Amino acid sequence: MPDTVHALLVATDGTITDLHLSTNDTPQRTQIHQALGDYAEALRYVRRPDGSHTVALAAETSDGQPPNLYAAIALHFLLGESLIAGIQGPVIFAGFNRQDALTSLTEDAVRTIRTASVIPAVR
What we know:
Elements: E1 4-10, E2 16-22, H1 25-36, E3 40-47, E4 53-59, H2 69-79, E5 91-96, E6 102-103, H3 107-116
Antiparallel strand pairs: 1-2, 1-5, 3-4, 4-5, 5-6
């Protein structure tokens, strides 16, 4: 079992920070709370046919936070759906398993999220 869970924090300016979250629930919740500035809620669950799963977590209270176009674009590519409006504040992307425990992101998800973060900057 890995010592940490690799997740990505996508800021509203497109900055991506690698997070190495604890595998223990209480410290993990504390780390997520500190990264988001609030308790987390799941924005979307991405279930892929290959069995890899990704969850996007945002602050429970995101009112007054700037929009996060970068996270919206990442979710668009991960889900294969229309662009999701109304995503505000920083967003954490992590993998999850059948027991709903957070797991490390797959390399494919990491590539997709990192690629999506540069799209708004391309003109």
